[in-house]
Amino acid sequence: MNDAMNEARALLAPMLRERLIASGDDGFEEAAAVVFEGEGRMPSLVARVREVDEIRAVVRAAARTGVPFAVRGSGHGYARPGSVPDGLVLDLRLMGGTEIDPARRIGVAHAGTTAGEYTHAAAEYGLATGFGDTLTVGIPGLALGGGIGFLSRRDGLTLDNVLSADVVLADGSTVQASETRSPDLFWALRGGGGNFGVVTRMELRLSEARVVTGGLLAFEPDPRTFAALLTAASTAPAELSIMVNAMKSPPAPFLPAERHGKAIIMAIVCHSGNPEHADAVLAPFRSAGKLVADLVRQQAYPQLFGLSPEQNGARVAQRTGFLDGLDEGVSAAALAAVETAPTPVAVVNLRPMGGAISRVPTGATAFAHRDRAIMATVGMVDRDAERFGAGTAWVEELASSAGIGGAAYVNFLDTTGPDSTAAAYPEATLGRLREVKRVFDPQNLFRSNQNIPPA
Predict the structure, then answer these.
(1) pTM for the complete prediction?
(2) Which of 133, 130, 81, 77 is CA-nearest to residue 107?
(3) Residue 70: Cβ within 10 Å count
(4) How far is the C-alpha of 260 from the C-alpha of 164, rounded, in Å?
(5) Which CATH architecture has domain 98-208?
(6) SS3 at position 449
(7) Region 212-412: CATH code
């Protein structure tokens, strides 16, 4: 460790004791690991905190010493922002906890709360806040960037359901941000990522989700099926959300063995309206192509997440963007590319937007892509480091040919830097974010992210 890191360690050791873990200590590799593997980002020191005063102490130590600094929630960021080379990581995983107020329909998530912990607690009352499609993701990190999932067309993005956030700022002070308190900070937090502080507590709106009709529809790889599914999504009521994937078929028991490892179209649908209307709403989706499997049924909302893959220890490469449609030629090329991908987990993921997402004015939050029809991603996940280069090239080529790029969804970016930040935020949005950054983090302490430099 260098002198600055030794100073940070000396400042924090009396408070954190065995929860301050240095490189070479027992348990360091586990403490320092994030979900996705990568090169050259191992920190020197991990501070595992349990309360807000400890967060404040770590933030102040980082600011005083000038050591490279990162904040780790669940560690799911594709660009691995929860780690920093030779630096200090503030680890929030011990600060879980959820409170559900069914009368007021408000849920509380703390700094380390995962979507699964919260979703299961809310489900006891037949309620939910929409997140993404993975229960192990941390709520604050997800909500600070967006959150597009199974309830988004009905209820909006996760960030649209944030009512307030308690934040530790770069000087170690605390503030609550909401529509009426620190409104500029509240605007920036909802889409601006972790650039402005450490969220220690978040209040979120809850909505009815006792029973949903949803699950998996798998189809033969026909390009016309893509078009039919997207057309059905564009005319469906807002109670219907869908994710459409062109991917290699996993070796799942509900899929024919002869399809395993070959291209397939898999859609996950969720109808969160009146169950009596579900069959009629889902009929255009079921008739979109030749069905291979139909696992759609009435079920408790948390059961929808059982299809999420295990990603720990894998390497990921992906390109994200927004589309206003997908023609049959591009659909055919995407399916052909998936079939010949050099990695076993290769996917084109399409998330139709609209509904409640588009009803929020574009400038109301720092998420500024509400007028687009589809959030699209080309990605690969692989545990084989030797295949990673070929998989990354495959992602780049297919994303370019499909027109996926330019504007980007900040939570799905797998690289950081000025180009990534510019893709995530239109010029006017980025300008306003920089002004807020100048007020709340003028020294750019919080920079292990899709960084927004202060104006």
Answers:
(1) 0.95
(2) 130
(3) 26
(4) 46
(5) 2-Layer Sandwich (3.30)
(6) coil
(7) 3.40.462.20
